[in-house]
Amino acid sequence: MSRAEGDLLQFVLVDMNPVWLGRMMEREPEQPASIVQCLIEATVAYCKACCALSTRKELYVFALSSNKHTIIQSSLRKGDPISAESNLSMMSCQIRDGLRRALLEFANEATVSKETKLVPALARSVCRINKAIKGTDAAPSSTSSRILLLKVSDDTTNDYSRLMSVFSTAQKLGTLMDCCAIGVDSALMHQASDITGGIYLKVGDLKTLVAVLMTVFLPTVGLRLQLVLPKIESVDYRPVCCCHQKLVLNPWVCSVCLSVFCTFTPICTTCKTVYKLPLLSIMGKRKKKE
Question: How would you classify the pairing of strands 176-182 and 200-203?
């Protein structure tokens, strides 16, 4: 598998958690359906623009929820001109219908949690990028690949160590991880964008999402150097403990699974490792002479 310079692996991960989308709809009682419509149409417009800018591109779109993720789009047929209007229209319809079906499927699940599982889709994207790099003799930095996450839910702290492993792997592969947080801040994705050299931006109004995606996240890596884009001024790198789900300044870290704890524990609650500590010498007190 050979890749010419300028080829791109583009992954778009859309957070479709029904709990958080429902909360956003409650803030718009007059037009609640417009929330989902704006999110879907903005995603379709961004994907269509990405494919129109390059004649050879692999595009992957994932819909994420609390229990699973669904792949909506997996590139186009081999040999077809990706910039052709017929292919772009077909791709737009597939993504639009796929996101709608995924949201209905997620909403009809028996149990729906407010925590969105990011690790499976992110790990799957990184593995696909690694496979593309292994299939060519080019260096990781020369294979252009990007991951964009449209996030509407709050951070999940249960997968902190796994997420940090994915972020480090993406950095090693030269993959940019961009995040557009909609309505909520994400400290974890803030760290991911800073580690991989991507862009993190919070959007308060969904009506401006299309403009943000086109002007901030659409430009290529080379064009970003020529534009005045939002920069990450300060990043909070305090880890989240596994016991109380709080930020810790000086944590205890398991040497086996890298789980973070705010206080010392003799047994790791994640991997059940028992720590061997050196015994303290007990000095007996001298008896006083009568």
Answer: parallel
DSSP string, 47-61: HHHHHHH-SSEEEEE
Are the beta carbons of 170 and 179 closer than 8 angstroms? no
User: 226-270 pLDDT, tens per residue?
Assistant: 888 877 677 877 877 877 777 788 888 888 887 888 888 888 888
φ, ψ for residue 48, nearest 5 deg: -65, -40
Report domain extents, the chain: 9-225, 238-282
Distance between CA atoms of residues 67 and 198, nearest Å: 27
CA–CA distance, 246 with 256 (Å, rounded to integer): 21
Smallest CA-to-CA distance from 46 within 155, 178, 195, 166 is with 178
**Kind of pairing between the strands at 144-151 and 176-182:** parallel
Please state the pTM of the whole predicted model. 0.82
β-strands 260-261, 252-253 pairing: antiparallel
Beta strands at 57-64 and 69-74: parallel, antiparallel or unpaired: antiparallel
Q: Which tokens hold the place of 282?
A: 């007990």
Question: What is the residue-averaged pLDDT of the chain?
Answer: 82
What's the CA gap between 66 and 89, in Å, rounded?
Answer: 30
**In CATH terms, is domain 9-225 a member of 3.40.50.1390?**
no
What is the distance, to the nearest Å, from the Cα of residue 155 to the centroid of all Cα atoms in its chain?
A: 10
Backbone angle region of 79, left / alpha / beta, with phi > 0 → left and psi within -120 to 50 → alpha: left
- Euclidean distance between CA atoms 118 and 150, whole angstroms: 11
Asked whether the beta carbons of 156 and 97 are under 8 A apart, the reply is: no
